[in-house]
Design a protein that fits this description.
Elements lengths: L16 E5 L2 E4 L4 E4 L2 H4 L8 H11 L12 H13 L4 E5 L2 H18 L7 E5 L8 H7 L2 H4 L9 E4 L4 H7 L4 E6 L2 E2 L5 E2 L2 H14 L2 E5 L23 E4 L10 E5 L20 H14 L4 H22 L4 E7 L2 E6 L3 H10 L2 E2 L1 E3 L3 E4 L7 H19 L7
Parallel strand pairs: 3-15, 5-6, 5-7, 7-10, 10-11
Antiparallel strand pairs: 1-2, 2-3, 4-12, 8-9, 11-12, 13-14, 14-17, 16-17
Helix pairs in contact: 2-9, 3-9, 10-12, 11-12
Bound molecules: pyridoxal-5'-phosphate (PLP).
């Protein structure tokens, strides 16, 4: 018992959020933290971005919610813009990443169902993956740390080893509907999927009539320096789930699909009371205004490269704390030597917020709007935090 009335599901850092300014989070005790966690890659434009504040407050004075019983012009506009910028023709809006994945799985099953193959309902997934905390998304990822005590999980997911194309081929059978994969495993420890493996998956999907489903919940909306990470791979998916960065902090998720892949999602087959409500859509459109503006993604690529170069030097200088830099754009992982939780605590004490990941990695997920000044500040705080660990300073409580 924590003494709080909240479920004890989170091991929270001892920071009580008061307000945010760009890349900075200010606590109720007045301490300023450089926020390179961004609420787990959500605050793509940082805290209190003026364009997002304006979009949300203007919409708040008009209409908040209608349900999808009526047309929502902002929803139609955001869908058109996402389709125009990607492989997709059709979009369904949900409220979170896990819901976007659930929609992707349902879309894949319905595709085969209306094609006369209701038996093709199983999805191939990968070890080390993360797709959310609903029962189906837990079943997809099969992470024992997340599934323990939650049986029975929904059936329909066949897991294979990460990066093993032969294992994927062997797992394909008459009941396979599609393959679900993150372009870079985020929670799994910032493990990028090699482009060659991606092309192999696309080929297997094409040869076997399967749908390639990408989980870009974390990698989407500019995080890797492209609007979506698949743009780096040379292949396109049939279905894609996005969430985190899309609302810049407002809860929203989306499932994108080609018209062909979405052929089974006809009226009445799926729905969400809140999904795509006018508030979420106003913010989502404002996020795209910024991310799709000329030069923005180029900025992410440039600043991501700079951060990675500076981090390489930090890693060289502290081999007993960190020994590897991974990732793309502003989705960066540092592999830790001591337990990553201790490293995170030392960084927090030095005024830098980062995020834990699997494989003893800490993730740096700064807002995409950071400049060289924030990179300098982050490097200084990393140096301080790592030096305090080397000095054997006890990790702060
Ligand atoms: C965060 C995340 C999810 C789940 O998103 P929620 O909004 O927490 O449901 C799914 N997939 C990936 C890759 C994620 O990073």
């Amino acid at each position: 018992m924590s003494g709080s009335a909240l479920f004890d599901t989170y091991a929270r850092a001892p920071i009580a959020a008061e307000r945010g300014e760009g890349a900075w989070l200010i606590a109720t005790d007045g301490r300023r933290y450089l926020d390179f966690g961004s609420g787990i890659a959500v605050n793509a434009l940082g805290h209190a971005h003026p364009a997002l504040v304006k979009a949300l407050t203007e919409q708040a004075a008009k209409v908040w919610h209608t349900s999808n019983a009526v047309r929502i012009p902002g929803q139609e506009r955001l869908a058109e813009r996402l389709a125009a910028a990607t492989f997709a023709d059709k979009v369904f809006f949900a409220n979170s990443g896990a819901e976007a994945i659930e929609c992707a799985v349902k879309t894949a099953r319905r595709y085969h169902y209306v094609g006369g193959h209701p038996e093709r309902n199983r999805i191939i997934t990968f070890d080390g993956s993360f797709h959310g905390r609903t029962l189906a998304t837990l079943s997809a990822a099969k992470n024992p740390k997340h599934t323990e005590g939650f049986d029975p999980l929904p059936d329909g997911f066949d897991q294979v080893a990460f990066g093993d194309l032969k294992a994927v081929e062997a797992a394909i059978g008459p009941a396979t509907a599609g393959i679900l994969i993150e372009p870079i495993q985020g929670e799994g420890g910032v493990r990028p999927v090699p482009n060659e493996f991606f092309r192999g998956l696309r080929r297997l999907c094409d040869e076997n009539g399967l749908l390639l489903i990408l989980d870009e919940v974390q990698t989407g909306i500019g995080r890797t320096g492209r609007l979506f990470a698949y743009e780096w791979t040379g292949v396109e998916p049939d279905i894609l789930a996005v969430a985190k960065g899309l609302g810049g902090g407002f809860p929203v998720g989306a499932c994108l699909a080609t018209a062909e892949a979405a052929r089974g999602m006809t009226a009445g087959t799926h729905g969400s009371t809140f999904g795509g409500n006018p508030l979420a859509m106003a913010v989502g459109n404002a996020v795209l205004d910024v991310v799709l503006a000329d030069g923005f993604l180029e900025h992410v690529r440039r600043i991501g490269l700079l951060l990675k170069q500076r981090l390489a030097a930090v890693v060289d200088g502290h081999p007993n704390v960190v020994d590897e830099v991974r990732g793309e754009g502003l989705l960066i992982g540092l592999h830790c030597v001591p337990p990553n939780r201790d490293v995170l605590a030392a960084l927090r004490d030095a005024g830098l917020i980062a995020v834990a990941a699997g494989d003893n990695v800490i993730r740096l997920l700064p807002p995409l709007i950071i400049g060289e000044a924030e990179v300098d500040q982050a490097i200084a705080r990393l140096e301080t935090g790592f030096a305090s660990m080397e000095a054997g300073a006890p990790a702060p409580a």
